[in-house]
Design brief:
The complex is a heterodimer of chains A (114) and B (110). Chain A is globular, with a radius of gyration of 13 Å. In chain A, strands 2, 4, 5, 6, 9, 10 and 11 form a seven-stranded mixed beta sheet that branches. In chain A, strands 1-3-8-7 form a four-stranded antiparallel beta sheet, with no helix packed on it. Chain A is 0% helix and 50% strand. With 114 residues, chain A is mainly β. In chain B, the strands form two sheets. In chain B, strands 1, 3, 4, 7, 8 and 9 form a six-stranded mixed beta sheet that branches. A three-stranded antiparallel beta sheet of chain B has the order 2-6-5, with no helix packed on it. Chain B is globular. Chain B starts with 8 loop residues before the first strand and ends with a strand. The chains are: A mainly beta (114), B mainly beta (110). Chains A and B meet through β5 of A and β8 of B.
């Protein structure tokens, strides 16, 4: 069974940093591009970015709204992808999902507040 | 990279059909056949219902169908059931390695 499990969310002060993790199982992780999507409470989905595979040089792409503060990485030895967020803003408060193909994780909540 | 445009709400009675539109531009929906539709229940993760404009993943009922004309994609739900009441989101490849979502449509089964 294909499964994604996000972790690392929590309460962070504005200006802080956070690193989210997404542990994958049930498929060939190293051969799959991984995406991150976020959703503020009561609002719609926003694509954050994606990371490709080793054969594609782990190429990353980001939404214009996050490109200077967000970094996506992966560790194929751990079947895990990461989303590092710097200089957190209150508007970054959202549930963050990782997704591959038709599978989504359960999400992890990031709350940015003083 | 602007969000795709969806109507905020749609509704229909049980057994009826309802169509939800998703309007983009010639740079996203109009340029590529990479349109997906997701269903989301409150508090739950989205579920892929349609990909590549009209392909249904395994397990998705054939009551769900997708199409595209020009810069607008559409999701049609036939034979509405109470369980179809949910939020629906479209997404599309926007070129330059970017993806974009629509604002979402709340489908109400009357």
């Amino acid at each position: 069974e294909v499964q994604l499990v996000e972790s690392g969310g929590g309460l962070v002060q504005p200006g802080g940093s956070l690193k989210l993790s997404c542990a994958a199982s049930g498929f060939t992780f190293s051969g799959s591009a991984m995406h991150w999507v976020r959703q503020p409470s009561g609002k719609g989905l926003e694509w954050v970015g994606r990371i490709r595979t080793k054969v594609n040089n782990f190429a990353t792409a980001y939404a214009a709204s996050v490109t200077d503060r967000f970094t996506i990485s992966r560790d194929d030895s751990k079947n895990t992808t990461y989303l590092q967020i710097h200089s957190l803003k209150t508007e970054d408060t959202a549930v963050y999902y990782c997704t591959v193909g038709s599978t989504w994780g359960q999400g992890t909540l990031v709350t940015v507040s003083s | 990279q602007s969000a795709l445009t969806q109507p905020p709400s749609a509704s229909g009675s049980p057994g009826q059909s309802v169509t939800i539109s998703c309007t983009g531009t010639s740079s996203d929906i109009g340029a590529y056949n990479y349109v997906s539709w997701y269903r989301q229940y409150p508090g739950k993760a989205p579920k892929l219902m349609i990909n590549e404009v009209s392909k249904r993943p395994s397990g998705v009922p054939d009551r769900f169908s997708g199409s595209k004309s020009g810069n607008t994609a559409s999701l049609t739900v036939s034979g509405l059931q109470a369980e179809d009441e949910a939020y629906f989101y479209c997404s599309a490849y926007a070129g330059n390695n970017l993806m974009v979502f629509g604002g979402g449509t709340k489908l109400t089964v009357l």
